[in-house]
Amino acid sequence: MRRGESSSKKVVTKEEWEKNLREVKIWKEDMNRLVMNFLVTEGYVDAVKKFLHESGTQPDVDIGTIFDRLDLRNAVECGHVEDAIEKVNHLNPEILDTNPQLYFHLQQLGLIELIRAGKVEEALEFAQEKLAPSGKDNPALLEELERTMALMAFENASKISVEEVKELLNDKQRRKTANELDAAVLKSLSDEKCPSLPSILKMLMLEQNQLDEKVSYPRINNIVGATLEGPVI
């Protein structure tokens, strides 16, 4: 019994728990679709092809679109924002038209790249033409713009001491924007914007936490190993 557990809790042995699990019907086709969904969403092209060959499970999207997504992600993560915008408009112009916040974040990253390169005058003009109009209509975006513009208050961006501003120059900002763009592109292709498997695992942990209040049972504490542990009687 874990520390703090009530002795009135019902105890389910490992043998009982495993017996109940064996009685749950899980279709192989459903598992295959779940795996394929993860591989496609995460952009593992080679794994998608191999899994398709081995299981016969068809992906929900054309495999070629995975290369398009990887190309877009690479452009953003390398700071080539205009190239990324051109590519996504060529792929589907409605993506940015229907996602003004995403378009703002791409332009924000473009501004950051200009500041990073020390092109202050060009950055000021860019902010006024590309970003200021969006900020006027959305206070949250205006706050993001002001935070980005604060980068220019420092002569040497690499010596910025204010963490909230400095993080904009971190590669994490590029990856964050790349993830946002990738999710929008994926949703336009298949109505999915993130893999289902992580969501299911999060739901598993939430359900276990709720069940802990009533029952002592074998838990899955290590998601990677997926081994049952306990209960301690």
UniProtKB/TrEMBL annotation:
SMART domains: CRA (SM00757), CTLH (SM00668), LisH (SM00667). One of its GO terms (biological process) is proteasome-mediated ubiquitin-dependent protein catabolic process. Residues 65-122 form the CTLH domain. GO terms for cellular component: cytoplasm; nucleus. Coiled coil: none annotated. It comes from the Eukaryota. This is CTLH domain-containing protein. It comes from Physcomitrium patens (Spreading-leaved earth moss).
